[in-house]
Amino acid sequence: MTPPGExxxxxxxxxDVPRASQPSVAADGETVYAISDRGGLPQAWKVSLAGGPxxxxxxxxxxxxxxxxxxxxxxxxxxxxxxxxENWRLDLVDATGERVREIxxxxxxxxxxxxxxxxxxxxxxxxxxxxRFFDLYEVDIDRAExxxxxxxxxxxxxxxxxxxERVALLRYVTNLDHDLIAWSEGGERLLNxxxxxxxxxxxxxxxxxxYAATNPGREFAAVYRYDPADGAPELLWEFPxxxxxxxxxxxGRRLAAVANDRGWSRLVLLDLPAGRPRRVPLPHDGVIAHxxxxxxxRALVFDLSSMEFGTQCFHLDPGSGAVRALTETDRPLPGAxxxxxxxxxxxxxxxSIPYWEYRPSGRARGTIVDVHGGPEGQARPQFLPVVGFLVxxxxxxxxxxxxxxxxxxxTYVHLDDVRRRMDSVxxxxxxVRALGPDGGVPAILGGSYGGxxxxxxxxxYPELWSAGIDLVGIANFVTFxxxxxxxxxxxxxxxxxxxDADRPFLEEISPIHHVDRIRAPMLVVHxxxxxxxxxxxxxxxxxxxxxxxxxxxxxxxxxxxxxxVRRKNQMTTVVRAVEFLERHLDAVGAS
Length: 591
Hints:
591 residues, alpha+beta, Neuraminidase, Rossmann fold, 3 domains, four-stranded antiparallel β-sheet, 10 helices
């Protein structure tokens, strides 16, 4: 068995590979802000558009979610929270990172960034009025007055795009059903009135129009143009997969679009108004999570993540089409980069279920099934340092996209809704069967909804698993829905079932009521400040396991929320998880 010190050093080497994401360009057109965890906590850094080393911009004792630079002046809005509580705080900072003023008004409420309307007006959303709903606020940074509420409604809203003329809003009917609204001081218009569900994945604005990546009456989201005054939507561009991100350049001449190609990201520029597409060759295959235009549309910056090259920021010259790295890691990967292979298996009811497989170079010590959250998430071939470490330690990692995952069309994402919840758990059983003897007796791990899948798998199919690792998972759907953040409950009930109509079913499928079936040793990890899945879910399952004598390790962190962002806590968890796997997964002698 590996000496603990050597193993910890190898884990640290993978976790310490610097990652940079969420780039945005300052008004000078030369400074790029990015979020990086190279100091052990997500913080704001800056780099020249010409490239070079990252320099600290906004050192804080808490994580920084985003930096939103003013398009005309050397100031920006910085977004932070405390201890992972997701009560986002907005600070106006100057070009040195010093705070000018706090924009948010209440540390117990959420203030999420929207965007700059011009050089002095900034809009954001907040549930300051009522924890259940989000209203639209605007602040003038040149005036001493507090932000004013400019639009209120008893509904869940998000800000999709901002321009001087108008704001594009999304009103959530469910997590997959959205109203697209064009709002201005002069009034507002619902752009997509319809009788059926429509998912708006992204929206952006030009002076004349609203563009959205949406799926009216179709399986995948395509690009549509809307006239904010009148007129039916016009289909501009479609792709054999979801268009996930849209950004219009400030001049309104081009759209940048990111499409999902079986998990890989494809970047396309669309010339307006015709919408002629031009594919942008990326430096390597990977996943784009964020992109932004610089002033006057002279530059496009984006992040790109892959197991082979980590997560870094890039610059695209829209004229020449040349792409170059803005940030580069000064620490190479500490081992062989695992190669993601996309495979599929056939479920008991005949569905094709995709999964990613990462194999070690030699004989595998065992198989780990890693289940994504969401539930409307998607396992994708991006940089995952823990997966990199595990594969280099000799473990085989399999990441399924069971029914209910996004990325495979409207029909597929609804196959696990409410009464069909356990069909997705059955997919995990069918995956293990498809892996055959080569899979040994696998361990299973997952976070958030993936944590529920872990608990559901070890209670429903206890004979299949040698060990389970539950990260911030749901143990009891009733208490979860009762205690999750008030703004989340309606959209989660649409997916899982309503307490007033489906309580008996929710109790029936909750793992807490089937703990007596669990045979596999368990590791449970949770943050005490989690507003999404409160820590009571972990405490319930740990208490029930201990009462029955089932081996269970429990890690609870005072300074974390829904997931682990602090390097010290990540190290503690991964070290404990590997020790746990070596005790329980190795013991079965998997091939």
